[in-house]
Design brief:
The protein contains ten helices and seven strands. It is α/β, with parallel strands linked by helices. The longest helix has 29 residues, at 93-121.
Length: 269
């Protein structure tokens, strides 16, 4: 039996890098897509593809290349994405649109291009890497959380649509993971106006505090979770893994908004 063919986006670092490497080690033929394709080229057993998820021509060419070379595509891992933090009042609508273009619309366009091939095969797995940010919320993260909440609902609808065609749609919700997240976050953060300066300082101190960062889970945990999902005979609709993922969700679910808000305020002192 030939190996399954997988495409992993955002494969140049973090969860995407760990996932591409893990799937290749497990025997899949893996294409790793990223803007920094030179970094993907260093991953053992991973075929690099230069791709900006918001560039329709590059996205279309990537899918066509895989079909031309392999004749099929069995697994799509939608991992590419980033976060920007700042007050809603201060983040421009253009910047907010960019957040949605990367985290939602680019992902959606790639998925649209992949679905017909999986449908023709009668099977396939689409893994959408969301975040616990799709279930909970943190101050200054409104636009990032908005994209992840949107991804959750979008994925639920897609799962029901594609199940009769033999295609499974899986949501993976990482908690706190040790990646380049904070570096990228700093790159996309905005200069805040005076009313929010104190809050920004609290959020920055909390996210950089060694007592927090030292407990973050490794990206390999999510890679293993994704491998579990795509090899399961009947994958679950959601997989939750990583530091604080389940405790934070339980707090939000059973404590309600009021208790969750108070807990955030205590953490951000």
């Amino acid at each position: 039996m030939t190996s399954r063919i997988a495409l992993v986006t955002g494969a140049s670092s973090g969860i995407g890098e760990a996932t591409a490497t893990r799937l290749a080690a497990a025997g899949l033929s893996v294409y790793g897509a990223a803007r920094r394709a030179d970094r993907v080229a260093q991953l053992p057993g991973v075929i690099p593809i230069a791709m900006d998820i918001t560039d329709d021509a590059q996205v279309s060419a990537a899918v066509q290349r895989i079909i031309d070379e392999q004749g099929r595509l069995d697994v799509l891992v939608n991992n590419a994405g980033y976060a920007q933090y700042g007050p809603v009042e201060d983040i421009s609508i253009d910047a907010a649109r960019r957040q949605f273009d990367v985290n939602i619309f680019g992902l959606a366009r790639l998925t649209q291009l992949v679905i017909p091939h999986m449908r023709a095969q009668g099977k396939g797995v689409i893994v959408n890497v969301s975040s616990m940010g799709g279930r909970i919320y943190t101050p200054l993260g409104a636009w990032y959380h908005a994209t992840k909440h949107a991804l959750e609902g979008w994925s639920d609808c897609l799962r029901v649509e594609l199940k009769p065609m033999g295609i499974d749609v899986v949501i993976v919700e990482p908690g706190g993971i040790a990646t380049e997240f904070n570096e990228v976050l700093a790159q996309h953060s905005v200069e805040v106006s005076e009313p929010y300066a104190d809050l920004q300082g609290k959020v920055a101190r909390t996210m950089s505090d060694p007592s927090f960062t030292s407990k973050l889970s490794p990206p390999s945990l999510i890679a293993d979770t994704i491998l579990e999902a795509i090899t399961a005979a009947k994958p679950k609709g959601r997989y939750m893994a990583g530091y604080l993922a389940k405790p934070m969700w339980r707090l939000r679910r059973f404590g309600g908004d009021g208790l969750y808000d108070r807990a955030l305020n205590r953490v951000l002192r």
